[in-house]
Amino acid sequence: MSQYTILLGGELVRTPALDRQIAGSRIIAADSGIQHAHTLGLVPELWVGDFDSAPALLPPHLNSVPKRSFPVDKDSTDGELAVEIALEKGAIRLVLAGAFGGARTDHAFLHLALGLRLAEKGIDVLLTSGTQEGRPLSRGCSTFDYAKGTLFSILGFSDLAGLSVRGAKWELAAVNVPFGSSLTMSNEVLSQLTIELEQGCAMLLAHPLPEQGG
């Protein structure tokens, strides 16, 4: 499987789960996302962007990462450009690390929408901050192995039809959820989480529990 991890400019916390999720990935940093490379102990193969928000000081081994520069006045964000380059290189799975939080709410929204658009094209996408994970929900049945007690919400980006949720504190059976409804906010995993969706565009947003040391 050709997996790329795109380092974005949002908040990122290194966790054991994140280390496993990006293991073996090829890495592309998008502008200020290069700062996460040091946190994760990685050296990207490419650094993409207009570099208007690049950190002023970086370790020497990161300053030498090959760059692909773009003008400040452009029609795509640095993150979207990094994703396009990864797809050109044959990526079929993407981890968007640093997709949430940070100073730009508009960028966080874009990353959610971009993740949904990529999933519609058949790309396996995970959005993560280390403490939050976003997984686009495909039509049909999907299962997730989150630990008991994990908090999650289903974010609807349209009206949802035939939504079923099993293995949760509040289960649903083939309900229709209007766009903008809070019905699917703040649920809790009890066993293997199963989500079925007949029609609509939605994303699972989970807050994985911290792993306990042995």
Automatic annotation (TrEMBL):
InterPro entries: Thi_PPkinase, Thiamin_PyroPKinase_B1-bd, TPK, TPK_catalytic, TPK_catalytic_sf
Keyword Cytoplasm: no
EC id: 2.7.6.2
Keyword Kinase: yes
Gene Ontology terms, MF aspect: thiamine diphosphokinase activity
Domain Thiamin pyrophosphokinase thiamin-binding positions: 134-203
Protein name, entry field: Thiamine diphosphokinase
High-level lineage: Bacteria, Pseudomonadati, Pseudomonadota, Alphaproteobacteria, Hyphomicrobiales
